[in-house]
Design a protein that fits this description.
The protein is mostly helical. The chain folds into 2 domains: 1-108, Arc Repressor Mutant, subunit A (Orthogonal Bundle), CATH 1.10.10.10; 112-263, GntR ligand-binding domain-like (Four Helix Bundle (Hemerythrin (Met), subunit A)), CATH 1.20.120.530. 62% of the residues lie in helices and 3% in strands. It has helices at 41-54, 67-74, 78-90, 110-124, 129-150, 153-171, 177-190, 194-213, 218-236, 240-256, 260-263; strands at residues 94-97, 103-106. A two-stranded antiparallel ribbon has the order 1-2.
Length: 268
């Protein structure tokens, strides 16, 4: 017997509806149990959906059921569901699209959310450039050590390509800030440690904010590309002490390049 294409049978909580079809299938079977009456019902709804996403039942690109369907499944109002979806969107787990093919879509933007939170904390706490630089250097030295030990041919090739791209941009007298920041992200990737990858993205977010507030200077991009080239040579030769010294010199040069009012600021 031919199955009704308008009905999706969920073997796990929230069987996903892919965005491949113009009109995605709606989960008509009950995927969630009604929540216990709580003071803040939307938090329980958000937590349950979040667990379903993190457990892999929903993946990036999958569409959640409509507000009405979720409300029916949880036994709550559409307003409660809307609050829960908004909380999930703010946390970086979903995005809410408008239009006929819109609705809540699983989309991993957690890293952007984390980086933004760290940047807010950096500014709120009036953290100085000296504090940031000291922490950055400590983290990047550990990343460097792991990268020297674990980098494979593909990692080295990516780093070389990055340097060539930065030097090409610099040869035109243009700023290569984004490419130079990418070098450090690639170094973290070469460490094979996902925690370092997350930390480096956060460092780059703060660094980018500081760079944006500093005077534009072509020499900074040029010098950074040259420093990266020397650093990569030491990494390839597995000369950790030399690489560590080069990294320290490079990061200190970056700190000095910031505006004097940023570098000399004191925590209140």
């Amino acid at each position: 017997m031919k199955k009704n294409s308008n009905t999706a049978i969920a073997q796990s909580p929230l069987a996903p509806m892919t965005t491949a079809n113009k009109y995605p299938t709606i989960v008509s079977s009950r995927s969630f149990s009604p929540i216990k009456k709580a003071k803040r019902a939307f938090e329980e709804v958000a937590a349950t959906v979040k667990d379903s996403i993190l457990n892999g039942h929903w993946k990036p690109g999958d569409r959640l059921p409509s507000e009405t369907e979720l409300g029916n499944q949880f036994g709550v109002s559409r307003h409660t569901v809307r609050e829960a979806l908004r909380a999930l969107e703010l946390s970086g787990l979903i995005t809410i699209r408008t239009g006929v093919a819109g609705g809540p879509i699983v989309q991993d933007t957690i890293m952007s959310s984390i980086s933004s939170l760290y940047l807010d904390a950096f500014q709120m706490e009036k953290i100085t450039v000296d504090e940031f630089t000291a922490a950055r250097l400590a983290i990047e030295e550990v990343i460097l050590s792991d990268a020297i030990e674990k980098a494979d041919e593909e990692d080295i090739a990516r780093l070389k390509e990055n340097i060539l791209k930065a030097k090409k941009i610099a040869s035109k007298g243009e700023i290569a800030t984004d490419v130079n920041f990418e070098f450090h992200s690639l170094l973290a990737l070469a460490s094979k440690n996902r925690v370092f990858i997350i930390l480096e993205k956060t460092i780059n977010t703060i660094n980018y904010n500081l760079r944006r507030r500093a005077p534009v200077d072509f020499r900074i991009s040029r010098d950074a590309a040259q420093a990266h080239e020397k650093l990569l040579d030491a990494i390839v030769k597995k000369q950790y002490e030399k690489a560590r010294r080069l990294m320290g010199k490079h990061i200190e040069a970056v700190k000095v390049s910031y505006s004097p009012e940023l570098t000399n600021s004191k925590k209140q």
